[in-house]
Amino acid sequence: MSAYLPRPLRQRLTAADGSRCAYCQTAVENTGQPLTVDHVIPQAQGGQTDFDNLCRACRRCNENKGTTILALDPLTGDVTPLFHPRRQRWQDHFAWDETGCRVLGLSACGRATAVALNINNEVMVDVRRRWVSAGWHPPG
Question: Looking at the chain, which runs of residues are DSSP E strands?
Protein backbone atom coordinates (compact mmCIF):
# COMPACT_ATOMS: atom_id res chain seq x y z
CA MET A 1 0.00 0.00 0.00
CA SER A 2 1.09 3.57 -0.52
CA ALA A 3 3.33 5.07 2.15
CA TYR A 4 1.58 8.46 2.06
CA LEU A 5 -1.48 7.09 3.89
CA PRO A 6 -1.53 7.46 7.66
CA ARG A 7 -1.27 4.15 9.48
CA PRO A 8 -4.82 4.30 10.96
CA LEU A 9 -6.26 4.79 7.47
CA ARG A 10 -4.21 1.89 6.06
CA GLN A 11 -5.40 -0.30 8.94
CA ARG A 12 -9.02 0.68 8.32
CA LEU A 13 -8.70 -0.20 4.64
CA THR A 14 -7.17 -3.56 5.52
CA ALA A 15 -9.97 -4.25 7.98
CA ALA A 16 -12.61 -3.35 5.37
CA ASP A 17 -11.15 -5.16 2.36
CA GLY A 18 -8.99 -7.84 3.93
CA SER A 19 -6.54 -9.45 1.54
CA ARG A 20 -8.91 -9.28 -1.45
CA CYS A 21 -9.32 -6.84 -4.28
CA ALA A 22 -12.48 -4.78 -3.63
CA TYR A 23 -13.40 -5.13 -7.32
CA CYS A 24 -12.58 -8.67 -8.48
CA GLN A 25 -12.32 -10.25 -4.99
CA THR A 26 -9.18 -12.11 -6.01
CA ALA A 27 -7.03 -12.85 -2.98
CA VAL A 28 -3.45 -11.68 -2.63
CA GLU A 29 -2.50 -15.35 -2.30
CA ASN A 30 -3.84 -15.94 -5.82
CA THR A 31 -1.87 -13.15 -7.48
CA GLY A 32 1.31 -13.15 -5.42
CA GLN A 33 1.34 -9.35 -5.54
CA PRO A 34 0.49 -6.87 -2.80
CA LEU A 35 -2.72 -4.90 -3.15
CA THR A 36 -2.59 -1.27 -4.20
CA VAL A 37 -4.70 1.61 -2.92
CA ASP A 38 -7.29 2.80 -5.43
CA HIS A 39 -9.03 6.17 -5.38
CA VAL A 40 -12.57 5.12 -6.36
CA ILE A 41 -13.13 8.62 -7.70
CA PRO A 42 -9.65 9.44 -9.05
CA GLN A 43 -7.79 12.42 -7.65
CA ALA A 44 -7.65 13.76 -11.21
CA GLN A 45 -11.45 14.03 -11.03
CA GLY A 46 -11.57 15.59 -7.57
CA GLY A 47 -11.54 12.39 -5.50
CA GLN A 48 -10.31 12.77 -1.95
CA THR A 49 -7.78 10.65 -0.10
CA ASP A 50 -10.12 9.46 2.63
CA PHE A 51 -11.66 6.14 3.63
CA ASP A 52 -14.93 6.74 1.76
CA ASN A 53 -13.03 7.13 -1.51
CA LEU A 54 -10.30 4.50 -1.09
CA CYS A 55 -10.21 0.76 -1.43
CA ARG A 56 -7.65 -1.98 -1.80
CA ALA A 57 -7.36 -3.27 -5.35
CA CYS A 58 -5.22 -5.75 -7.20
CA ARG A 59 -2.74 -4.20 -9.58
CA ARG A 60 -4.66 -5.38 -12.66
CA CYS A 61 -7.98 -3.84 -11.56
CA ASN A 62 -6.31 -0.62 -10.45
CA GLU A 63 -4.37 -0.20 -13.70
CA ASN A 64 -7.34 -1.13 -15.89
CA LYS A 65 -9.57 1.30 -14.00
CA GLY A 66 -7.15 4.22 -14.19
CA THR A 67 -9.22 7.41 -14.12
CA THR A 68 -12.40 5.74 -15.37
CA ILE A 69 -15.58 6.28 -13.35
CA LEU A 70 -18.17 5.56 -16.05
CA ALA A 71 -18.42 2.73 -18.58
CA LEU A 72 -20.90 1.15 -20.96
CA ASP A 73 -23.15 -1.63 -19.77
CA PRO A 74 -22.47 -4.29 -22.44
CA LEU A 75 -26.09 -5.50 -22.22
CA THR A 76 -27.90 -2.17 -22.70
CA GLY A 77 -25.20 0.12 -24.08
CA ASP A 78 -26.06 2.69 -21.41
CA VAL A 79 -23.33 4.67 -19.67
CA THR A 80 -23.25 3.73 -15.99
CA PRO A 81 -21.06 4.50 -12.98
CA LEU A 82 -18.52 1.87 -12.02
CA PHE A 83 -18.92 -0.12 -8.81
CA HIS A 84 -18.12 1.90 -5.67
CA PRO A 85 -16.84 -0.48 -2.95
CA ARG A 86 -17.65 1.92 -0.10
CA ARG A 87 -21.20 2.74 -1.18
CA GLN A 88 -22.32 -0.54 -2.73
CA ARG A 89 -22.28 -4.19 -1.72
CA TRP A 90 -20.30 -6.51 -3.99
CA GLN A 91 -22.97 -9.23 -3.78
CA ASP A 92 -25.62 -6.86 -5.17
CA HIS A 93 -23.64 -6.33 -8.37
CA PHE A 94 -21.49 -9.43 -8.87
CA ALA A 95 -21.48 -13.18 -8.39
CA TRP A 96 -19.09 -16.02 -9.18
CA ASP A 97 -19.97 -18.39 -12.00
CA GLU A 98 -20.51 -22.07 -11.19
CA THR A 99 -16.79 -22.80 -11.59
CA GLY A 100 -15.66 -20.04 -9.20
CA CYS A 101 -13.33 -18.72 -11.89
CA ARG A 102 -15.30 -15.90 -13.51
CA VAL A 103 -17.02 -12.89 -12.01
CA LEU A 104 -20.51 -12.27 -13.38
CA GLY A 105 -22.05 -8.80 -13.50
CA LEU A 106 -25.56 -8.92 -12.04
CA SER A 107 -26.45 -5.26 -12.62
CA ALA A 108 -25.59 -2.58 -15.16
CA CYS A 109 -22.95 -1.33 -12.72
CA GLY A 110 -21.52 -4.83 -12.25
CA ARG A 111 -21.44 -5.61 -15.96
CA ALA A 112 -19.84 -2.26 -16.86
CA THR A 113 -17.26 -2.64 -14.10
CA ALA A 114 -16.38 -6.22 -15.08
CA VAL A 115 -15.73 -5.13 -18.67
CA ALA A 116 -13.97 -1.83 -17.89
CA LEU A 117 -11.61 -3.44 -15.38
CA ASN A 118 -11.20 -6.58 -17.53
CA ILE A 119 -11.96 -8.61 -14.40
CA ASN A 120 -12.22 -11.86 -16.35
CA ASN A 121 -9.02 -11.54 -18.33
CA GLU A 122 -7.68 -14.94 -19.29
CA VAL A 123 -4.63 -14.69 -17.03
CA MET A 124 -6.74 -14.18 -13.90
CA VAL A 125 -9.33 -16.76 -14.93
CA ASP A 126 -6.50 -19.27 -15.35
CA VAL A 127 -5.03 -18.31 -11.96
CA ARG A 128 -8.43 -18.73 -10.30
CA ARG A 129 -8.94 -22.06 -12.09
CA ARG A 130 -5.66 -23.38 -10.66
CA TRP A 131 -6.53 -22.13 -7.18
CA VAL A 132 -10.03 -23.66 -7.33
CA SER A 133 -8.45 -26.96 -8.40
CA ALA A 134 -6.18 -26.71 -5.33
CA GLY A 135 -9.19 -26.24 -3.01
CA TRP A 136 -9.58 -22.44 -2.94
CA HIS A 137 -13.17 -21.23 -2.69
CA PRO A 138 -14.19 -17.78 -3.90
CA PRO A 139 -15.71 -15.50 -1.24
CA GLY A 140 -19.45 -15.24 -0.82
Answer: 36-39, 54-57, 70-72, 79-81, 94-96, 103-105
